[in-house]
User: Fold these one by one.
Assistant:
Number 1:
Amino acid sequence: MTKGTFISFEGIDGSGKSTQAFMLSEHLQNLGYEPILTREPGGSPGAEEIRALVLQGDTDRWSAETELLLFTAARRDHLERLIQPALEQGKIVICDRFADSTRMYQGLSRGDLRNTVDALHSLMIGREPDVTLLIDMDPARGLARAKSRQGIEERFEDFGTDLQTKMRTGFLALAEEFNERFVVIDGTREIDIVAQEVAEAVLKYLNSQM
């Protein structure tokens, strides 16, 4: 390949997307690729510091507008320091969440800010994934799975099932809006079956670029 490939995973909390991103990275390594696995918010030292600010604490810690600015700042640093340099080197970058999550959390579910999200994204990021894998999951089931982890990064899970339901509806709408890059995967099945479908979708794209 003469250019890198940018792959993102999206889905509600507890959908299994992080597990699937890891499994895809392992699968591609076994095939001889050298993928870079990263996440958002995070992926660079500065962005990881912002991650702690937005994912921990009370639900009312930040307004949707402030969250949008924080997430965009983290994404810009991530893009500059990791994603773009890797893509310019022809690498495959696998990212657990990207701008579509901001379109959902701050643009739809936490506030009516979609136009602002898109304008800020165009101004400061200007990059979409080549392939976005949406791991679809029932909101109640996903939330129960997410809460069972009992971690400290549960600020968004604490908003409850209503937020997750809005998120799922919104993600499915995004998949229709950006149908040229989205692939919707049923995440309710066995992990290995989901992973196989994910790998097939990604390899189909990679082969089409050769």
Number 2:
Amino acid sequence: MKILVTGTAGFIGYHLAKRLTSEGFEVVGLDNINDYYDIRVKYGRLEDSGIEGAKEATYNSILVSQTNPNYKFIKLNLEDKEGIDRLFESEKFDAVCNLAAQAGVRYSITNPNVYIQSNIVGFTNILESCRHNGIKHLVYASSSSVYGLNESMPFSVHDNVDHPISLYAASKKSNELMAHTYSHLYNLPTTGLRFFTVYGPWGRPDMALFLFTKAMLEGKAIDVYNYGNMQRDFTYIDDIVEGIVRIIQKPPKGNKNWSGKNPDPSSSVAPYKIYNIGNNNPVKLMDFIEAIEESLGIKAQKNMLPLQAGDVPSTYADVEDLIKDMGYKPSTPIKEGVANFIKWYREFYSV
């Protein structure tokens, strides 16, 4: 099976490419290596995957991993329709996992156009190339942020999600709608994955765990929003990757019991499916900070602040469909996951 994984200089994409190639899959990784956050981390992920010379590589050129013959990498923008078309035509993929996107809830409030280009225009190019190249399964990253103003807990894929509170969330909801259209019109099997606050080694520098760890090691105060009254369904990276690998190999066939009179948002008569991938165990932000303090051996100085625009107080994933269809449920305890991240952080930054 030959798989295109977009976003492989990113957090989840890096881990997924390593896992797939270790199991014998042939992977082509794609990323534009933008500077939304520290590109040293992005190049570090590529180097750890055996991709050498990425800094000097020309746009749209293929690099082959020096440590894994099953892995190749290309620097390319999703918005580059001609480049994406050429890649699909030349590589003949069996499946696609689209993880590349402009990330970040708060960044979307100040930089909306970037999200339209990457998450809407870019995703359209992926859909079109999948349609025209006989792709057997398109798996793509959605987000728990699509639940927006929903207050019914745990968040269920069977609930309506039409009230996003950030453009990032709206772009991810749009991806789900666009995917359904292609599943319906062209019989393209698509699966959307709503990730819940992913964390772990090689994690994103704009996320709380990274920011808190960095600040605490530098003796600075951490910003604690909503005065600490937050809950997040923190999900360890290995649990996320396990879910993706299982799902890639099981394209949806369509729900024969689906009814347009009482439509289930998570499925369709078309080969379309949505899953939550979360730990199904919300953690209070103050308990999360305590786990970091314990692992670092440092007491955090806290700067208590109100809730940020575009943010939600709680997330909690209902993963019953994931358990039923894939026989799998994320389970890594928060203290174990945090300790693994901090071990990586200390090694990467030599602190």
